[in-house]
Amino acid sequence: MTFFARRRWIGVAVTLTTLVGVRLWAERMENRLQSSSYFTGWLLLSAIVVLAAFQLRKKLPAAPFGSAATWLQAHIYIGLGSAGLYAIHAPWRWPNGILETTLSFVYLATFASGAVGLYWTRSLPRRLSRLGSEVIYEQISAERHRIQQRAQGAILSAVRTAGATTLGEFYNARLHDYFSTRRGWSFRLWPTSELRKSLLSELTETTRYLSDDERKTAEQLFALLRERDDLDYSESLQWRLKAWLFVHIALTYPLLLAAGLHAWTAHLFDGGLP
Fold this sequence. Notes:
Elements: H1 3-31, H2 37-58, H3 68-89, H4 97-129, H5 140-162, H6 165-180, H7 185-189, H8 194-206, H9 212-269
């Protein structure tokens, strides 16, 4: 068993053992006619605070509070375990009132975004690495412009030197917009290779009517088509990671606020606060 697999099993075992212990202690309190709501509620609030503190820890790389990798592992398993704490604290029922409804919705949205992010951060980097070359997200626009300039330059050169009107007409009709504009939101949300296959197929069909000189330019276009599609695909996956992180962090602050208000009102109406 590898180190990472062993660490994963240990994390799962500790999380499940902790949840079983919390559940048994909560049942013991209920059997003794004591309310377990404060016990499980404060545990859940503490877990949320620790999870939120991970963002602060990432901004302090030299802080003596454990390595970022350790914090990440703790963040993952505490986050997964918080779902169990939530189920123990609030059994499966419809929440009462605006505050409980808001808190439940924000918690579930935050947990869901975290679960999606856990999957994406494990799977998307592998898909990006299969592209061969990695481009930093902030440099994608410049790379897109470079590919466009190379494609236009190849066509202009072919038209001047070989009178490549057939290839030039095909470029203007089918490839100019492809190289000069960004892909739409549908591709960013759900990237497919359909357009790439279609354009490559059309360009292959067009080569039947080209001269030898034009075919050399067409080969450049084949390569640039693939490079541009890979770049768009890379942008889509990297955007997904950035958008997920933005949403996940944005949900953290209303979650902390709603959880804090819930704890305060719970004690207030129970007479525990002045």
